[in-house]
Design goal:
Helix 3 packs across helix 9. Strand 1 and strand 2 form a beta hairpin. The chain is built from nine helices and twelve strands. It has about 270 residues and is an alpha/beta fold. The protein binds zinc ion (ZN). Zinc ion binds next to loops.
Amino acid sequence: MRILGVDVGGTKIEITGYDEKFYHIKRIPSNEDNLKKLNSILINEAEGFGAEAIGIGIAGWLEDRRVVKAPNLRYKDFQFNLPVPFILENDANCFAYGVQKLRFPEILYMAGITVGTGIGMGLILNGKLFRGRGKAGEIGHSVIHSIARIPDMLCVCGGRNHLECYFSGWSLEKKYDDFKRVIKENSEQIFREKGYELFIQEVTHLVTILDLELVAIGGGIGNKLSQEIVKRDVNTMLPPPFTCRVEIIKEDGMVAKGAALLAEDMLNKE
Ligand SMILES: [Zn+2]
């Protein structure tokens, strides 16, 4: 079975082929032009790879498998008309699914959190992807103001004082002119951010509410975090006997891989 897995993120679009193994095919900027042309790009790549299905992971909020909001994308009006069956899924859901299937198939309760341009989360509960009514897992847009007592901040989604305002690629880039260098050369800096503390706080809330066994963190910023420090901080904040495993996922392309695996599941069910 040959399948395309696609990651439509805030900064890049990544296309991966899957046929028992994964093959990196293409990475292009997630600019307005490429997003507008996404349907025809996917038609070309599907033909080139001989794909029988396509899994698309997109940085947006979904209802009935339609994008209803995509705060971190430069274009939002997606209409897919593809020559093969496809699934559309939230990108963080694809990440969580990929991590569980490929790395931790024995774990039944976990969250996969991506910290990149924004923050996304996919939940695996009792071994299954949990979507709620479609939008579950939007941890990046949970309000934290009353906890943080910090100045009012406007979020990309139009709300105020959301976690992303303090800990995300877009908000940290606003704060530091040379954020890419800061992240690359001194990733320790990130642990001194107020936003980091708020992020850890949100993670511990999740663990206590859902009794998660694992929190896997990835994304362009998330994969630079130190596993040892995040694990220590989460477990320091958790009330005993809660404990949680933390894994920083450095493997590339996990959203696209998870999207391909979800598309494979869809074909297997047909
Ligand atoms: Zn928001």
